[in-house]
Each structure stands twice: as structure tokens, then as C-alpha cells.
Amino acid sequence: MQVNQPLSSASARSIRLRRIVLLAAIPLLLILAIAVALIERRQRTEFLQADADRILDDPRLAAKTLAKGRDIFLANCATCHGADGRGSTATGTPDLTDEDFLYGTGRASEIESIVLHGIRSGDDKGWDLAWMPAYGQPVPYAREKLPSLSPGEIEQLTSYLRAMNGTKGEDPTAVAAGNVLFEGRGGCWDCHGRDAQGDAAIGAPNLTDGKWLRGDGSRRDISRIIREGLHGVSPAFRGRLDPANVRAVAVYVSSLHARKDHE
Fold first, then answer.
1. What is the pLDDT of residues 62-82, one digit of tens each?
2. What is the CATH T-level fold of the domain 151-228, as seen in this structure?
3. What are the sequence ranges of the domains in the chain?
4. 107 with 57: CB under 8 angstroms?
5. If I label 67, which of 23, 136, 198, 233 is the partner at 20 to 30 A Cα–Cα?
6. Residues of 180-211 as b/e, b for ≥16 C-beta within 10 angstroms?
């Protein structure tokens, strides 16, 4: 039978000392945790009160914001836009690294609104002003009565748009007929403008700059868009990301086209 030996007086003193140190450390750790929380809260408030469009100009905020924004982008946006943000013309997902802005002018504050409310997301504050009608369908556009176009008319519009982008060899008669459709019965000018250069206020792309949201500007791809329509969706992250994370990813995205210019 083993008998527990009594602790020596030195061992007992050592245990009591450790307990005293531990008890004294707890309030200090609590004070430290509160101080860290207060500092983080102050920094978060400062970040949210800052002008989103000027954050990249502030060395105190820029590096940390870009690192955080990239992490959020990779976790939430890269599935569609790609890890590099260049999108996909196969799916009609915009390239976020160039200066061909579909909505707005690429400012962080504009992107912040898109992240929060989305595009055609069902959010009542989201962008939802323009859908590309499907002119090959009996009802091209549910919101407004528009006429369908015949396969021949779709080909004429395709010839016109290809010619507007500098494609050589298009039939002049077809181009002229496509121009009439663009400015008349097709109603294309209403969103894309008389000059076909689009309207970033409603998300109507420029049709003259050789940059294509979907496809590569081939006859097949352009006629398909005219025939089937196009209206992509960007989700609303309001309620899914907190305001600081929304701002961080918006600032990160706004930096991408500037980075590409220096590659």
C-alpha cells in the first residue's frame, strides 16, 4: 500500500506562489483583451468612415485592406471571376482587371454597392435596369413589348455589329439593314446608345470596342447573344459579409485594373 507523502514547506510555497501569479495574471489578460478589442473597434470604425475611393492612397490602410480583400475575393468571388479576376467570356463573366467597366467607372464606392446589393440578384437596391432581350424568342423581353427578329434579321444585325468593330468583308447591304434594325425596330439603341457605345449607368456594354462579355466577337457568338439574350447575375452579399469585409473586397477589386496596367 502506497502512502502519500506530505508536501514539503518549499513545495507548498511554490504552489501558492504559482496560484497567486495566475490569479494576478487573469485581470491583466482581461485588460489586454479589452484593450485589443477597443483598438480593433476603433480601427474598424476609422476604416468604415474613410472615403472608400481614397483608401488605396492611405499607406496605413492600403496594404492591410488589399490583403484582407484578396482573401475575401478568393473565398467568395473567384468561383465565377477566377482567382486572377479576369472572368470568362465562355460564361459571360466580366473581366475585373481591365478598364472596360460594365457598371459604373470602377471606383471602390461603386463596387461596394454592387457587392452589397448585386446585379439582378433580387435585392431591391441592386442593379437591374437592363436585360439583353432574346430576339429569337416569341417574347424577347418580359418587361416591355418588343418584336422578335427573324434569323435573317439577326444575321443583318450581326453583320452591322461586326462592321462596327472593324471586321472586313461584311456585306454592305446586310450592314446597312442591320443599322436600320439597330436604330429602329430592334430598339437596340435604347440601351446601347445611338453610337452603340453602351451606357455604364445601366450596365449596357460598349459594342464598338472589340471587347466582348461573352464569346470572341465571331459571327456565331454575336448572333447567339442576339438570339438567346444575356442577363448575368451577381449575388448580393448584404447579410453574408459584414460591412468591413464588403469594403475590403471592393477596394481590392478596384485595384485590379490598375495592377494590370503595370504587368
1. 999 999 999 999 999 999 999
2. Cytochrome Bc1 Complex; Chain D, domain 2 (1.10.760)
3. 7-49, 50-127+233-261, 151-228
4. no
5. 233
6. ebbeeebbbeebbeeebebebeebbbbbbeee
